[in-house]
Write a structure and sequence with these properties.
Blueprint lengths: L7 E4 L9 E6 L3 E6 L5 E5 H5 L2 E5 L3
Antiparallel strand pairs: 1-2, 1-5, 2-3, 3-4
């Protein structure tokens, strides 16, 4: 899956704050994401995130 820094990910499940939108801050073997709702930043393994992505929005 081609995911780049700056992409907005719509996830299948909500973050605890209620938002489904995440922004990619870093990509590689794991992703650093920022929740669009509350601003919380966290790192997650690539294989865990890729199966939970519903849609990728890229602004070019």
């Amino acid at each position: 899956m081609d995911i780049r820094v700056g992409d907005k990910l719509t996830m299948k499940k909500n973050h605890p704050c209620g938002s489904k939108e995440m922004v990619v801050l870093r990509s590689g073997m794991d992703f650093k994401l920022r929740c669009s709702g509350c601003g919380h930043e966290f790192m997650v393994a690539r294989n865990k995130i890729e199966k939970n992505i519903k849609q990728v929005k890229r602004e070019e």
